[in-house]
Amino acid sequence: MYSNLIITAVYLVLMFGAGIFFSRNIKSTSDYFLAGRSAPWFWIMGAVWATNIGFLHGYLAHGGAAYEWGLIQANFEWFQGPFGYILTGLFFIAFYWRAGIYTVPQFLERRYGNGIRTIYALAWIFIFLVTIAAELYLGGMFLKNILHIPFWPTVFVLTGVVGTYMLLGGLGAAIMMEFVQFVIMMLGTMPLLFILLKMVGGFKGITTTLIGQWGASAQYFSVLPDIHHPYGPGPWVILGQCLVVTIGWCAGHQSMVQRNLGARSLYDAKLGYVVASIPKTLGAFLYIVPMIAAPIVFSRMGIFVEKSDAAYGKLILNLLPQGMLGLFIAGLLSAGLSSIGSVLNSASTMIVKDIYERFFVKGQSDHHYFVAGRVATFGVIIASLLLVPVVLKVYLIMWLEQLLLAMVLGPFMAVLVLAIFWPRANTPGSLVGFLTGGVFAVLLQQVFGVDIFFQISWWSFVVTLAVTVVASLLTPPPKKEKTAGLTWQSNFEVLVGEVVEDRALTKAVQVGEIQQRTIVLPPWYLNIKYWATAILAVQVVLLLFFG
Amino acid sequence: MSHGNPSANPKLIVAVQMLCIGMVLLVLGLVVVLRSPVKSMSPLFRTWSILSNGAIVLAGIVFTIGGIVRYRRLH
């Protein structure tokens, strides 16, 4: 027991110390909010994945759902996630970069105007506060159950560690810690898969026991079950989850996008996002596949699990020896801390850039907003701590978070797609479409009783798309300078313009010294298209086996 | 109009990040090695414990050296 406690304590002290040591290099708002635009692609890869994995979206909740519902839970890792990462990396990130923004709402403002930016920012700030509180609650309960240490001191220690390095170091510290957490999760918790597979006789042993002896449905081993599946009907997973929610999450979630905006170049941002789908795919082997084997191990050990969310914790607690368990605790804490840190950083960025700088104090020095960023981070920590006691006890708050996500992601995807691919989309059209889509999502849930999240997102996406198109056509088109550089078409024009200008300079009479353009191509093994193709091929193979 | 603070050197930021990552992984890996009763573990757990801890320590060494090299190049 003491070994596990010591390892956990050492891990937290190291994170705390590293954060303080790193923060001495942070000097400006660009350093604080965008890590001085210094991160190479492999930092981005680790940070994006670690941001995505937490207690809520990872080991405990996803692992628990896999324990209950089977391999369908892997569709996040083998299907939607990589698809969303690759598509966002290849298409959307470039537009954010060219717009020179700090936040996703800022992009919406550049393209559409103020109103939509404020609504989107406020919705996400609320979602972030609830997310941090929920992660802290789950982290505190996890350590309480596994190490038998009191809940509140644990929550304060977790908040103190992650709060300190985020408060002082900003995005640079977050990315650094997320990479550490990425390594610990990958190398530290992967052995559970091999240990369990050895114990239950491999994949064949799992299927033989669960289907052959226990009479489990074959759908338990399907990533895309049929339309009657109560948890995740296959067609809705593809339409709502894959095409709307996942891409909306990858392209519209400030924490995911902000890591890419902190990259040292657009190429690093794109490659980092694309290759992050590799750890995303491997994530299923960390907490999905082991939890499918877990029922067999539990039955052999005579362990009863009351709540599926507690299954992963019970498994490692009863199975792993001292030391190894300590490393697993550090791995799980890594998942939680990386999520808390990234959301904390994003919430403070949005508060300063989307609210404070626009509505309260305009035109101040860089140092002023740098300090404001730290104050905002502190404020978010306090607000989240205050939410911890109520977040999972008061049904209304979690309901509101789910409702906001359903309201935000569908309409956001619709206005983002139109923003980039349809220059005719304008300010009134997007605002009316966004609000109508959001209200429609609420009506679907509250009046029509639709409770499958994917369906709500899909239909709110469709309604937003239709209303935005109609409303835009009924109102004057946006001015060309408003869309310049922000749409697919305008970027193409800019590129053509550059090439024509270059040719004119080189072929026509030269009036002065022309600077030689040198384009450095990346080596073949860092080619984004090769990586994207290879990863998508792996997803196809996985779907053919488990679809 | 914002007056910009001088930003840190991006290469320095990456060097310090590498150094910090390396040190955290190295120290954590070594503490886990020291606190793990490897001899009393069953062969299955012993093998995976050694592989897992070894990989973390190795990653720690690589990042620490990488960070030091990058840091010294800048000074």
Roughly how many Å is the radius of gyration of chain A? Answer: 24 Å
Low-confidence stretches of chain A: none
Q: Give the CA-based shape of chain A.
A: globular
Tell me the β content of chain B.
under 5%
- Number of helical regions of chain B: 2
Largest pleated sheet of chain B: none
Quaternary structure type = heterodimer
Calculate the terminal CA-CA distance of chain A, rounded to whole Å. 42 Å
User: Considering DSSP H and I runs of 4 or more, what fraction of the residues of chain A is helical?
Assistant: over 70%
Order of helical and strand elements of chain A: HHHHHHHHHHHHHHHHHHHHHHHH
The average pLDDT score of chain A comes to 84
Approximate helicity band of chain B: over 70%
What structural category do the secondary elements of chain A indicate? mainly alpha
N-to-C order of helices and strands of chain B: HH
Number of strands of chain A: 0
Structural class by helix and strand composition of chain B:
mainly alpha
- Indicate the low-confidence ranges of chain B by residue numbers: none
Number of helices of chain A: 24
Summary keywords:
heterodimer; A: 547 residues; mainly alpha; 24 helices; globular; B: 2 helices
Overall description:
The complex is a heterodimer of chains A (547) and B (75). Chain A is mainly α. Helices cover 77% and strands 0% of the residues of chain A. Chain A contains 24 helices and no strands. Chain A has helices spanning 2-23, 29-34, 41-52, 61-69, 75-99, 104-112, 114-147, 151-189, 191-200, 202-213, 234-252, 254-261, 266-275, 277-287, 289-301, 311-319, 324-360, 366-391, 395-421, 427-446, 453-474, 480-483, 488-507, 528-546. In chain A, helix 8 (151-189) packs across helix 18 (366-391). The longest helix of chain A is centred in the N-terminal third of the chain and has 39 residues, at 151-189. Chain A is globular. The two termini of chain A are 42 Å apart. The mean pLDDT of chain A is 84. Chain B has 75 residues and is mainly α. Chain B has helices at residues 10-35, 43-74. The longest helix of chain B has 32 residues, at 43-74. The radius of gyration of chain B is 18 Å and the shape is rod-shaped. Classes of the chains: A mainly alpha (547), B mainly alpha (75). At the A-B interface, helix 1, helix 2, helix 8, helix 9 and helix 17 of A face helix 1 and helix 2 of B.
